[in-house]
């Protein structure tokens, strides 16, 4: 883990808490492609999406630990830890990062990693990244697709991410789960990560099938993640569980089965439904039946070992526009578990600073050593983000508009001159060798620091 003391602890000034209601903007946008909507800068946080992507790296030490393990299953455990930990900084972060400008870049070099990100396409918005540290490589691209449903916004981070351990000739890939922002019209905004994540190891054939549960009114499931590690013949090897906001643990299948048998009450949907069938032993039996009938080959909804019997009837219980609370009394702690990942606590001042983590606080800092070698397209040099960070909201808005117009003009003149389309400088389009999906490949040149600067700011 980083010695974070070296870096900035807070932003220059606390955030401005606006009274502005997001619905007043979005009600005119139903059905529109959200990436094309200009949102008032008061909804922004002073980071670009490229910087937000670099937040995946906060727990990069897990990749180092993974690369040091002898056994492929243990490596998989730490890769799972890394994949889930990468989402933790999203908790309560409801500010909108700035859309990166075409050609914008962001670099970050720390003890455990260095990463380079580039905005490789504007419409549709695609951000590519490549991180490494000798023993591992982590790369991918993200094309966030926002769907606006009225009461909620659904964000699908399209694109595949890959971890490679070159010395071991091993690669893992997965796709990030959906993110859902609730209470757009009324109530307090809140966010959850939902869906299935399948992490595949191409060398061993191991797979991790994880389910990020929908709170859907059942507060017990809020932020919960659980699933299994399977070998190549779909045999369950380990049970993995936790919350993407807090921790990930791992235990063996026997301990898990025993725990389900002995703790049926914890696994039942609590006292809400009072049907005669809901006696603990009945629930326990049902849970085991369900467990035994799990079809692990195909990855469908019923594949996840639900810790609640029914989410549907539970949803009646929650006030429509409230935020589900995590039940602190409810904790699964299965014997023989090991903790793979544990979240760093948020800094005390976090709520005055866009709910930033300590790591996020440092991302827009221009460190002294960067002064004379920084790439001229680096997000840290964006004047609109800098102004928002300094609390100058009007100034930020002016700069944001200017930059967006400048980008539009550059686009137009490229089109009229019939010069070639924009080509990204550090990535080129290719095919992911493992999944065969479209992907962006790093050309390896960024850190040579020979920058020809397109003037984008
Ligand atoms: C979630 C984790 C994914 C990558 C990813 C892509 C887009 C991000 C999303 C993450 C988090 C939430 C996000 C979103 C873009 C806009 C949205 C930052 C990082 C914010 C909360 C939008 C708020 C405004 C709406 C209410 C209109 O792997």
From TrEMBL:
KW Transport (keyword) present: yes
Chain intervals with Polar residues compositional bias: 299-309
InterPro entries the UniProt entry points to: OSBP_sf, Oxysterol-bd, Oxysterol-bd_CS
Gene Ontology BP annotations: lipid transport
Gene Ontology MF terms: sterol binding
Top-rank taxon, per record: Eukaryota
Pfam families reported in the protein's UniProt record: Oxysterol_BP
Database matches in PROSITE patterns: OSBP
Record field: compositional bias (Basic and acidic residues): 398-412
Region entry Disordered, spans: 265-285, 299-329, 398-422
Keyword vocabulary terms for this entry: Lipid transport, Lipid-binding, Transport
Compositionally biased tracts (Low complexity): 265-281
One cellular component term from this protein's GO annotations in UniProt: plasma membrane
PANTHER family (alphabetical): OXYSTEROL-BINDING PROTEIN (PTHR10972:SF209), OXYSTEROL-BINDING PROTEIN-RELATED (PTHR10972)
Family stated for the protein in its record: Belongs to the OSBP family.
Name listed for the protein in its UniProt record: Oxysterol-binding protein
